Amino acid sequence: MKPDPDILDYRCTTAEFAAADPQMALLPLGATEQHGAHLPCGTDTFQADYLADEIAHRLPIWRLPTIPITVSHMHRGSPGTVWLSNETLMAVVKDVVLSLRSQGLKKVVLLNGHGGNFVLRPIIQDLNRDYDDLRVILLEASVPERVFQEPPGSIHAGESETSRMLHIAPDLVKMELAVNTDVPYSQSFLLYAPIKELEPSGVWGHAADATPEKGERYHQLYVDAAVTAIQDTFAALDRIRPLQAR
């Protein structure tokens, strides 16, 4: 495995990290869970990996390894699904962030590739409350164009995720098994029941309408928006609430 000279990540040596002296880190979070019959269980992790690499090519940032197992118990009962509890994910993220802080790094971006990680918001809020010398943000980037046509409530393994996987890992997509579904529930029902009881196929969207061109277009727009969002959010926070020295 060769290092990428344009990315600071775990392929670098400790001497290279010392020389780079990074001031900002990117922590991607994926998941390992069912994505219907047509997508791999690692879909969220593949997507988070791709976006993290693209962002790291554009910003001077420490690209941390993607956490591949997070809060996926809303897919319990579906083969290939594994998960952490909310409490465990909270502890893992906090430990990672504080280990970065111990090295003097003050700015951390969480890139969430899995919609079920609802607990990230209170983690971030707590870290920013408890440590005046830290800035932890959740990457929230708005794509300025509607790339996908499926209903807004489509949230899992549908046109969006399938198109994105067709762009980044087409060999892992089985389009002949892709289906379209219109689930008569809101996302909040995942707080009450696993997805297999709400939609047996495990697909919550229009997967059969996916194309690699849509996935590529979305990624182009998202990466541009993500880089801008990271820069603008930290700049705004520097004005609102200057970092304290340790």
SSE topology:
Layout: H1 14-20, E1 24-29, H2 43-56, E2 62-63, H3 86-101, E3 107-112, H4 120-130, E4 135-138, H5 159-168, H6 195-198, H7 212-240
Helix pairs in contact: 2-5, 5-7
Can you offer a commentary on this structure?
The structure is a single chain. With 246 residues, the chain is of the alpha/beta class. The chain has a single domain (14-240), classed as Creatininase (Rossmann fold, 3-Layer(aba) Sandwich). It is built from 7 helices and 4 strands; from the N terminus they run αβαβαβαβααα. It has helices at residues 14-20, 43-56, 86-101, 120-130, 159-168, 195-198, 212-240, and strands at residues 24-29, 62-63, 107-112, 135-138. It has a 4-stranded parallel beta sheet with strand order 2-1-3-4. Helix 2 (43-56) packs across helix 5 (159-168) and helix 5 crosses helix 7 (212-240). The longest helix has 29 residues, at 212-240. The radius of gyration is 18 Å and the shape is globular. It starts with 13 loop residues before the first helix and ends in a 6-residue tail after the last helix.
Give a short synopsis of this structure.
The chain has seven helices and four strands; from the N terminus they run αβαβαβαβααα. It is of the alpha/beta class and 246 residues long.
CATH superfamily: Creatininase
> Percentage of helical residues?
25-40%
Strand content: 5-15%
Question: What gap, in angstroms, lies between the N and C termini?
Answer: 37 Å
Order of helices and strands: HEHEHEHEHHH
CATH class: Alpha Beta
The CATH topology label is Rossmann fold
Query: Strand order of the main beta sheet, please?
Result: 2-1-3-4
- Main sheet: strands, sense, barrel: 4 strands, parallel
